[in-house]
Write a structure and sequence with these properties.
Elements lengths: L1 H13 L18 H6 L1 E5 L21 H4 L4 H5 L12 H10 L4 E7 L25 H12 L2 E7 L25 H18 L6 E5 L8 H14 L4 E2 L41 E4 L17 H13 L3 E6 L9 H17 L17 E8 L2 E8 L7 E5 L5 E6 L4 E2 L2 E4 L2 E5 L11 E6 L4
Parallel strand pairs: 1-2, 1-7, 2-3, 3-4, 4-5, 6-7
Antiparallel strand pairs: 8-9, 9-15, 10-14, 11-12, 11-15, 13-14
Length: 447
């Protein structure tokens, strides 16, 4: 039943008029091209919520939502400003870790729902310049990204639990009456002006990744207006679908045929099937939380993360993998270890991810497939999750003449033969990689 529901959502998404055609300018250059080629990015959730590190009054299940999940009064939460002093923060090191992991872009929380800003803003004192640190995090990161050829992107929350004009208030927030609050003023004089700062002070921004659009004060009309406003600030910028209404929960796709936004945003899940002709990006945590929680030990293994990256690429999507830094500015060691494992795999097999498109096969029992056009021919990257006991990889024949087969690690040519409707590829006795070795199949022409 769930797959039928997802398929219906996809059909509605395809019929929409706001995603694919808008991306191409008059010279035929598609502003989405770099993003589609990148396939892999780093999400960073960081802010005042790193100070309590997931714990409040004996409970340990909190993270970036802690002000709401622990119902912390504003005055109490504001005290974290004086405690946020990430002296270990090193923008160059953060970007280097992302790059070494094979990631091509970074999306960091310029402002999360709590309203605290990691940048020097002229429109609030609730920002990094009010902390003991007093350094513009976003400026240092954008400079480091420019230096290391990584695309910098901002996550910016529409929702704001701190600004006096933002509505609605939290139900439990009885000490903050809404009298005198003006949501229109919040949008025009605060939200938009901060977006102008974010697109005007830090060079070219790859993506503006909105969130918090689900509250009843945000409307489709406001979403359309904000999308057009941001595109007016930087025409080539990419904007996710959370700028507008209509997102179907964690599945992340938009139901409306009038929505604005350049790509869908599945959260913590991967669509069961590919979504032909649709741009989408799965965002996912390494453990259970987005922000840092020192008690959260439920880490996904390196094997899980590598195979999720492959699965997403095989369905034509991007993978935005999250890190929640500590309050001192260091990444958790568990995140560093997994980034290193991803980087080791990507160093050999990155070609099978970057610039690829979705698999031509509906299902492969042993793994996944990505595809790439090379000149006039097609290269299939066969990601083998389950190495066959008889060392024979059975692949449905695509109908095109097979030119060559290779073990990707070392580009070692291997034998193959056609058996009925299948191609049978000879494999070595031992898999060259423990997580996802890749076999290359080159076929003549386009599939």
């Amino acid at each position: 039943m769930k797959n039928i529901f997802v398929t219906l959502l996809v059909l509605l998404f395809v019929l929409s008029n706001g995603c694919v055609n808008e991306a191409t300018d008059t010279e035929g250059v598609d502003r989405m091209d770099w993003w589609r080629d990148a396939r892999f990015g780093m999400f960073i959730h960081w802010g005042l919520y790193a100070v309590p590190a997931g714990e409040w009054e004996g409970t340990t299940n909190h993270a970036e939502w802690i002000r709401t999940t622990a119902q912390i009064p504003l005055e109490t939460y504001d005290a974290f400003v004086d405690q946020f002093n990430p002296v270990e923060f090193d923008a160059d090191e953060w970007v280097r870790m992302a790059k070494d992991a094979g990631m091509k872009y970074i999306v960091i929380t310029s402002k999360h729902h709590d309203g605290f800003c990691l940048f020097d803003s002229d429109y609030t004192d609730f920002d990094i310049m009010s902390t003991p640190f007093r350094r513009d995090i976003l400026k240092e990161l954008s400079d480091a990204c420019t230096e290391q050829d990584i695309v910098i992107c901002w996550y910016h929350s529409i929702m704001d639990w701190h600004h006096p004009d933002y509505l609605p208030r939290r139900d439990w927030e009885t000490e903050r009456p809404a009298e005198g609050a003006d949501f229109d003023r919040y949008v025009e004089e605060y939200l938009k002006k901060q977006l102008a700062e974010l697109t005007g002070k830090y060079g070219n921004i790859g993506v503006l990744w909105f969130d918090g659009e689900w509250e009843n004060t945000w409307t489709h009309e406001r979403g359309v207006d904000l999308y057009n406003y941001v595109r007016g600030l930087q025409d080539d910028i990419i904007i996710n679908n959370r700028v507008d209404k209509g997102r179907q929960g964690m599945q992340g796709m938009t139901r409306s045929d009038k929505f604005k936004g350049d790509f869908g945003t599945p959260e913590q899940e991967i669509p069961a099937t590919g979504l032909p002709g649709i741009d989408w990006e799965t965002c996912m945590t390494m453990n259970n939380h987005w922000g840092y929680n020192k008690y959260d030990d439920n880490w996904k293994s390196a094997e899980e993360l590598i195979q999720k990256l492959v699965d997403i690429a095989s369905k034509g999507g991007n993978f935005l993998l999250n890190v929640g830094p500590k309050a001192d500015g260091n990444f958790p060691q568990e995140s560093i270890d997994r980034l290193k494992s991803l980087g080791k795999w990507m160093e050999i097999y990155g070609e099978s991810i970057y610039g690829t498109s979705a698999s031509p096969f509906s299902k492969l029992e042993w793994g996944r497939c990505t595809k790439k056009q090379i000149d006039k021919n097609t290269r299939l990257y066969l990601h083998v999750f389950d190495w066959p006991d008889d060392n024979k990889l059975i692949v449905p024949a695509p109908g095109n003449k097979v030119k060559d087969a290779f073990i990707m690690d070392g580009m070692i040519k291997t034998g193959f033969e056609i058996q009925g409707e299948n191609i049978v590829i000879d494999l070595p006795e031992e898999a060259p990689d423990e997580y996802s070795p890749v076999v290359i199949l080159d076929v003549k022409g386009k599939l």
